[in-house]
């Protein structure tokens, strides 16, 4: 049977048509973040699309910072964005900034003024908003709309020289206050901001608006396919108007559906609020959907790329189940992560009464069963062991296959043991199990008998204390776009999104230098956290070992 040919998405169809028709000899895309926060999972989709398309069709991608708002932008974010892009495995062709083009944008603004296509408006923000009208009602022209080009040019230059205060005047395009697309109702091109810019310092006190900046920056760089999310589709006609009016390189904008995930927010404004109010530990809190957050949690670039590939590129908004992302993470880690045994902070002591006191055996155990010929680790086995409390039940149902009175289980990689006696404290809590082991059941001895249950364990005298941070959903509401009007999004913060416990691990775990999350056998995947010290290793829960999610 021939392998099914993968259908092209709509952006691939556009690019292939453009290349075949000769409209473009090669493609150049761009990724244009505003440096006012950290990148999140939604940006990962945009990165995969912009860089992925360029790679597929032999083109290039520029990194261009949309740094037109000096009061919200910082070099901290500039550096973090570059780190995140490199972590995902992408490399930009040119590093550019909208501020690189401030002089050219200003010249074009003067050109529009001289041609009678732009004017200085003294109305307040409230008046401008009120006079824009509604979808069903045309706007009202500003009383300053008919200033002469000479007067507008004089005032605009005075704005540039710092003569006026913030908000005192703006420069607007003169288009059509009755236009059915409200973006055309004399949009603002420049506003006054007496603020120091992270790159240009105090050279400017007027800054261009996004709609005036973006298309012209694309044009200056000869961007062939300006790809952005669907909410910018209403901006596209204005994008085209500026390019056509100025008679510059005809970059064109294309829109795709943004990424929405269950139990997740991807508003930089709201994420910033969570950080500023101390509701999370920072931008890189593993509960955050930021790329630095999921990186710290243990998600891998390979998993994020696989996820973006699975959800595809469409023009229709949809809410994606976060379990699909977690499935992609598990698929990647299952193939590559090292395995170790860790028991919880409330274990049950197991004493092997017929095992020699003082004897220690070191079992050679695979780091990843998927690669039995690969590397291994040494695991110590002794008379005194610890098991998870969840792996023993005194009054067990018929189909309970873990340890129970007079029942047998195999200790993973080692022997079969039988529970002979239960020891309880004065409260009735089980604190110790007296067990016997069957020495003939050691793997590799030539004899083998099967039991249905296998549990993990650690040797008491060799166990290493660790801190385990179990992370869960940050929010309790699946669709965070549907927060009721009488509620705040913070009302849905999950109080159980972080539970910190202690654990006891086999010693080899502390020597793992793989750089990716490891598997705590039979439990889940965990990534070593930068908070770790020589005295206490800290591990973040990446994702559970399995769930009920089915991938179609």
Return residue spans where pLDDT drops below 50 for at least 5 consecutive residues.
none
Based on CA atoms alone, the radius of gyration comes out at 31 Å
Spatially, the strands of the biggest sheet line up as: 12-25-26-27-23-24-13
The secondary structure category is alpha/beta
Distance between the termini: 21 Å
Instruction: Compute the average pLDDT.
Output: 95
Q: What oligomeric state do these chains adopt?
A: single chain
What is the count of DSSP helices, taking H or I runs of 4+ residues?
Answer: 12
What would the principal axes of the Cα set say about the shape?
A: elongated
- Helix proportion range: 10-25%
Task: Report the biggest beta sheet as strand number plus sense, adding barrel if it closes.
Answer: 7 strands, mixed
Strand residue content: 15-25%
User: In total, how many beta strands?
Assistant: 27
Which descriptors would you attach to this protein?
single chain; 7-stranded mixed sheet; 12 helices; about 550 residues
Task: Walk me through this protein's architecture.
With 552 residues, this protein is α/β, with parallel strands linked by helices. The protein is built from 12 helices and 27 strands. Helix 2 (41-56) packs across helix 11 and helix 7 (210-220) crosses helix 8 (236-246). The two termini are 21 Å apart. The mean pLDDT is 95.
